[in-house]
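Handout, page 2. Input:
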Amino acid sequence: MSGRESLPTGVDLLHDPLHNHGTAFTERERDAYKLRGLLPPRVLTQEQQVLRSLENFRKKPNDLEKYIYLIGLEDRNETLFYRVVMSHLEEMMPIIYTPTVGKACQEYAHIFRRPRGLYISANDRGCIKELVANWPHDDVEVIVVTDGERILGLGDQGANGMGIPVGKLSLYTACAGINPAKTLPITLDVGTENQRLLDDPIYIGLPQRRLRGAEYDALVDEFMTAVTERYPNVMVQFEDFANLNAFRLLHKYRNAYCTFNDDIQGTASVTLAGIYSALRLTGGKLGEQKLLFLGAGEAGIGIADLIVSAMMDEGLTEAEARLRCWFVDSRGLVESTRTDLAEHKLHYAHEFAPQPDLLAAVNALQPTAIIGVSGRGQMFTQPIVAAMAQLNKRPIVFALSNPTSNSECTAEEAYTWSDGRAIFASGSPFDPVEFNSQRFVPGQGNNSYIFPGVGLGVVAVKARHVPDEMFMAAARTLARLVTEEDLAKGRIYPSLTRIREVSAAIGTAVAEVAYQQGLARVPRPNNLPAYIESQMYQPVYK
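Output:
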């Protein structure tokens, strides 16, 4: 262990999760840091600690208890936590993030142990700068912030939504090697409209209705000013804001700060990558596809906007590209005669006869792909999937809503109802499916393939902004890393076991965009891929 002068000693060191090694402290370190007698006498290796951690993890009776155990481990020993997660990512990711994190947010006040990150409330207006100064680390590179209004597909979870920034930043470290000491989860507690939370006597947030309008905007402005003044090179990721705020905050801040919205841009990038991979199975070009979205919120519109940009790169005009993207919302097909459309839907309100629901729209429009971002489970019914299979030799069926209970259909349903011909992806993981003597491994179109690598590239070169071209580059890079073996199994994304490789490649592509656009504040290294890999944190004791 280095940096002895700045480290605590004794019990204080054992209570410091960033520097605690637990029973792996060496004999020399136990003498140097006054740990004699405070630990059992046997020195264990990190590998032995991992074995013990896995044994305890796997004994837990359900996924929520496993989540609580892992958060506790992170609170005690972050290095060990990341070694466990990175060594068993396919097993751990559904626990530390979707789908289990959704349940954890719903129960957050009741499983609350130790605070993580910063809570900035509506009552802190006028003093957010002083509050940010309370954070003990001076070199924060990545902030994930939520106001808890639209947590996954679960709606308003208020301050309980802190589970999302915590989980996202765990993935930044596990998937892309962002140093955990340089990350900061933040919740803007501006109240909640969730009556269950307002009536809960142990709810951890402000028990009041949500702040709206000019007061809300002033709070977010003050927050952005405060964090970027203290951390001039920080990247701020907006997460799980409701539609009424997500789009306008992105447009307001994207050219003023280094910031992006993962629900809009990250989801768009991973979906575009999935479409690129699917086209390797179906043939044809992106600009020849007709895409029908179920759900016209920030995820759906964000995906369509990025796909339009990609189609324009292939030679289509913007108008032609937009005509390849169609939407169905809760009131039917989004089309030009409707007078109830929010502003963000207007670009996709094409001239067409009204259609009351998704099945009618599928039959009328004859799309090559349906993309579910509705936040509502079981919306891709058997007649809909069967209709897609009748229209297409290899129908593209993306059921992207999270958590698993909100998926528009299951992998088994998609394969069964399409006679094994669907190219399927989902937001949450599904087990492999056996159908007609064939084994399908469903792809998980999870943003964790995108945002960690984007963040790695941005912070490695200290980019000033995060333009859409970075997400385009990320999508193309991710699709390129899908192997023929993956495709043969029906998987249109790489295995999660390759996520560090994926993130390094995406980080390099994103950094390349930063240099091309003059956004980087770090001189270009001679070997950019090697430089990106050198920036990746490894969970080893030092």
